[in-house]
Every structure is written in structure tokens, then in C-alpha cells.
Amino acid sequence: MFVVMSVTEVIEQIKALSPDERATVAKFVLEHDDWVPEDFKAAMKDLEAGRLVDMETVLSAAKPPSRERFETALHSLLSRPLRGLNIPSEALRRENLYDDPE
């Protein structure tokens, strides 16, 4: 006999299992992952290894910067004060930037 269940119902059923039974379900899902697309598995391995590229870079076909260049640029950006925010210094001392000084 088969019963049609929603994803939410399946999840609730799994939550209701004992810890040992949940572990058995998790092990089964991990060992029988033929339903997971191979490109997704490859992407997850890339993610775990830190091999990521910004989507805009990929779509523009530009070569991504080297890790060293990226880290140098990030360090440069974070090590200097922010300029050009156009917020008066007296406003920064207020609790709410948009309140008029009293």
C-alpha cells in the first residue's frame, strides 16, 4: 500500500524517528545518491575545496583573478579608511543618523 505524502510530511516523519533510525535513513541517502546529478556532486566538491568563481565573472567570460591578487586587493580594501560616504562627522556621533541635532 502506498500513501502519497508531501515533502513536509516526509520530513516530519523522519523527525519523529529515533536517533538510530534517523542515522539509518541518513546513511541510506548518502550511500544511494544516484538521484543526485553528477554536476551537482562535482560542484559540491569544488565548494568544499574552495574553488569558487563569481557568477558575473563566469558570465562575462573574464578570467578570474588569481587567489594572490584577490587576497592583496581585499587586504588593501580593508586596511584603509572608508572615504566618500558623505556622512557629516557630527551625524556619526548621533544615535540615529537622520535625527536633527537638539
Keyword list:
6 helices; mainly alpha; single chain; 0% strand; 102 residues; extended
What report would you give on this structure?
The structure is a single chain. This protein has six helices and no strands. The protein is mainly α. It has a domain at 36-68. The protein has helices spanning 7-15, 19-31, 38-48, 55-60, 67-78, 89-92.
Short description, anyone?
The chain is an all-alpha fold and 102 residues long.
Q: Please provide the count of β strands.
A: 0
Strand composition percent: under 5%
Query: Would you identify the regions where 5 or more consecutive residues have pLDDT less than 50?
Result: none
Determine the mean pLDDT. Answer: 79
Q: What's the alpha carbon Rg, rounded to whole Å? A: 25 Å
| Sheet/helix structural class | mainly alpha
Number of helices: 6
Oligomer: single chain
Shape: extended
Helix share, percent? 40-55%
Major sheet: size, sense and barrel closure? none
Query: Topology as H/E string?
Result: HHHHHH
Question: Whole-Å distance between the termini?
Answer: 74 Å
Question: What topology does this entry show?
Answer:
Blueprint: H1 7-15, H2 19-31, H3 38-48, H4 55-60, H5 67-78, H6 89-92
